[in-house]
């Protein structure tokens, strides 16, 4: 059982090493060690060195995302309203168009009756 645990640990260590994790963490920890003025948050220092946003950057991004979501919701609602207006205009146009067609047919029928030669 103990050998199995050791084998798992060794496999995991090899995995971390081959994927570059150990090297990256070692470099970051060395950089932290070499800081003359230690940062107030070692964790934030490590996150930044590994490419993550700082807490303040993260908060700014969250606020920006929230603002953009509000703008998106407003624009989407306006878009939906515009679509409803467009459907109303189309509907009105098609009703008027069908009235025009009916009137045109009546006029054509009257014209045909007037121009057609009388039946004997």
Overview of this structure, please?
With 120 residues, the protein is mainly alpha-helical. It folds into two domains: 1-52, no CATH class; 53-97. Helices cover 83% and strands 0% of the residues. It has helices spanning 2-18, 21-34, 42-49, 55-115. Helix 2 (21-34) crosses helix 3. The radius of gyration is 38 Å and the shape is elongated. The N and C termini lie far apart (115 Å). The mean pLDDT is 87.
What is this structure, in a nutshell?
The chain is mostly helical. The chain contains 4 helices and no strands. The protein is elongated.
Low-pLDDT runs of 5+ residues are none
How much is the radius of gyration in Å?
38 Å
**Share of helix, binned:** over 70%
* 3D shape: elongated
Mean pLDDT: 87
Q: How many structural domains does the protein architecture include?
A: 2
List the helices and strands and how they pair.
Blueprint lengths: L1 H17 L2 H14 L7 H8 L5 H61 L5
Helix pairs in contact: 2-3
Task: Give the key terms.
single chain; 120 residues; mainly alpha; 2 domains; transcription coactivator activity; AMY1; nucleus; c-Myc-binding protein
